[in-house]
């Protein structure tokens, strides 16, 4: 006679978990007596539901320190990659700005022709314009600045 670990029922026979060494009645063990008998020799390696669940991939993943370390390494690598991506992101921004400037420059040049502006040029990625050799230079940052051609 023993008491089932789960419900405390006193029973004469029931599966004994190979891992946690707790013994259950058949109802709590989740196996019928017939099926348990059929296990034959493998009865000695039977595991209770708790131990079976603990062996599932999800918990093995968390309980495995080796994997935890590898996760940390992966995180570090990811941070590294992200840091390397920052200059790339600003490069993409630069390209965007250049593309935008190109369109703006074309408009500025067209306008300059119409409005008789002598100079439209780019310096350090900035579009600059000047009506004549003696007039002040102004910067064209956006479409709004195109109004300065007057
Ligand atoms: Zn029980
Ligand atoms: Zn167990």
From TrEMBL:
UniProt-listed InterPro entries: FP_C (IPR057251)
Ranges of residues in domain FP protein C-terminal: 100-149
One family name in Pfam for this protein: Baculo_FP_2nd
Protein name: (apollo) hypothetical protein
